Amino acid sequence: MFSIRQLGAINRTYRHLNRYQRILRVLFKYGFSDLVDRLHIDQYLETGLQMINRKPREQLDRHTRPARLRMALEELGPTFIKLGQLLSTRPDFIPPEYLSELAKLQDSVPPFSYQEVQQIFLEECGQDPEEVFEYFDSIPLAAASIGQVHQARLLTGQHQTGGGRSREVVVKVQRPGIENLIAIDLEILAHLAHLMEEHLEEVQGHRPSSIVDEFARSLSREIDFTIELANIQRFSRQFEGNTSIHVPDVYPQLSTERLLVLELVDGIKASDVETLKERGYDLPLIAERGANLVMEQIFVHGFFHADPHPGNIFIMPDNVICFIDFGQMGRLSLKDREDFADLVLNLVSADAGKVAAGVLKVTSQQGTLDQDALELDIGDFMDRYLYLSLGELKAGKILQDLLELVSRHKLSLKPNLYLMLKAMTTVEGVGLLLDPDIQLINLARPFLKRIKVGQIKPTRLAKEVGETGMEYLALLRDLPDEARSIISQLRRGKMKLEFEHRGLRALENSLDRASNRIAFAIVLAAQIIGSSLIIRSDIPPHWHGIPVVGLAGFLLAGVMGFWLLISIIRHGKM
User: Fold this and answer.
1) How far is CA 514 from the centre of its chain?
2) DSSP readout, 445-465?
């Protein structure tokens, strides 16, 4: 029999049956039928799976399995593309050969029609775009999975009311139906994650359900444009008065959950190196400024652009840097920043014991940890890098190797630390594109030392001592009541101990399947016996002298028996 949790999963599965079958068809198409079999999806979609061709196309044989996974995610659309991009930052969950392939995922889709844009404006503003703006270009500048961008011009006075400096703006319009599609895909992903935890032992320690939950929170923030607007406003306040960065103006009075209006940035993409050179920009200065700005976002403010790739960075006159697309932002608490700074500085001081302790502070443990083996690997890691010259050190490579070391010992970084490492690695790549001699590690050092100095300031120490003292006082105040409650429960025999069984899910599923087949076989036997009795009793009506009801019973029993036999053979159990 199915549990309540399984029944809920079945209900969600059938509610989105068409989309589920579409996902399975794509997985079969790209050669992942083995994964579907291991997840035992057939117990939820028995009929649907029988109609799907399991043979991958022959021409896909020339592609590697990681490449086929990337192609499948791209074909499945926005939710799966975003998921692949998230997984490309998780070496603890994805094998190395998949990471580089998933990093190639392109968030590029055809634009939607201007009629749909008009409909969204009517639903959000009650007006047509031409009524809201003096000018609105019906042809989009760019299109992506979440939305597309149109150029427009504000009505006279609108920019002053909104606090902006320019009448030329861009309008980000949410893709029609994207919210519903993402909601359906997230439910299906949650079900698949649940099946992975039940049937794939190699991923159980990585908690796929928690990764899907993290992804769902991130994606829900990205499709709500009011959150992106708030991100831009906070980002702007962080850099108020800094002349090396320009943050686009936003127009809250014209923006909604599905529309975002912001200043049109007149600049050159950081990836367009040739144009920057032709126009006399100082590329080494731009590379240094960009890296310092990202370091400041991470280590000073704890609120940073999580995807600073070249397409999201524009260079303006006087070598001023402008970030765009604030849908993905990372957040780090002061403690997380301090723990990471301690880890890096201990690496520089070559103290394997302190580095191991620092690793444990910024990670969560998924299994039994061998502390000696961890320290030994950390010692090897430091020997590999600490004796190289500064010019030979590349932050991206060091961080990647550190992540692989952590994953090897079944440790996981906190989610926002993955975003931080992704941002640092990405900005180093942009910096090297502009200046091959840039040294991100050297640029990061002052920010790390600043955090370290902040830890020993008298005001900080006094604050921590006061907070710790208050926590101990609260503990002492609550201790008598807590002890009295425990003793009272012991006296009345109401103290309960809870045990969690692990590794029994496969046995439970096997027993469920066996009991279902036994019940099916009993019904089948009863059908045969009942039909035999009807024929023996010669109960009318007749067809060519044979009782029709008895004959129909035998035919039905034959179909049922054949179905049971096929099911047993398909699962390799005879």
Assistant:
1) 37
2) HHHHHHHHHHHT-HHHHHHHH
pTM exceeds cut of 0.85? no
Contacting residues for 223 by C-beta, under 8 A, at least 6 apart: 146, 174, 178, 179, 182
Residue 538 falls in the annotated catalytic set = no
**DSSP conformation letters of 335-403:** HHHHHHHHHHHHHHTT-HHHHHHHHHHSEEE-S---HHHHHHHHHHHHHHHTTS-GGG--HHHHHHHHH
Q: Which two tokens stand for residue 419?
A: 């975003």
* 8-state DSSP, 250: B
Q: Rounded to whole angstroms, how far apart are CA atoms 32 and 36? A: 7
Fold of 108-191+215-264: Phosphorylase Kinase; domain 1 (3.30.200)
Secondary element (H or E) of residue 152: strand 147-153
Which of 399, 410, 323 lies closest to 363, judged by CA?
Answer: 410
Q: What is the rounded CA–CA span in Å between residue 311 and residue 323?
A: 9
CA angle (412 as vertex; 411, 418 as ends), nearest 5: 145
Q: How far apart are CA 538 and CA 509, in angstroms?
A: 43
Both tokens of 69, joined, read 């996974």
More confident position, 75 or 507: 75
pLDDT in tens, 242-287: 999 999 999 999 999 999 999 999 999 998 999 999 999 999 999 9
3-state secondary structure at position 508: helix
Question: Residues 92, 249, 307, 336: which is the catalytic one?
Answer: 307
- Coil/strand/helix, residue 287: helix
Residue 268 pairs with which residues in a beta bridge? 315
Which stretch of 70-84, 320-334, 523-537 has the lowest confidence by average pLDDT? Answer: 523-537
Residue 363, classified by CB atoms within 10 Å of its CB into exposed (0-12), middle (13-18) or buried (19+), is buried
Locate the DSSP E strands across 69-116: none
Q: Give the angle subtended at the CA of 454 by the CAs of 448 and 455, to the nearest 5°.
A: 100
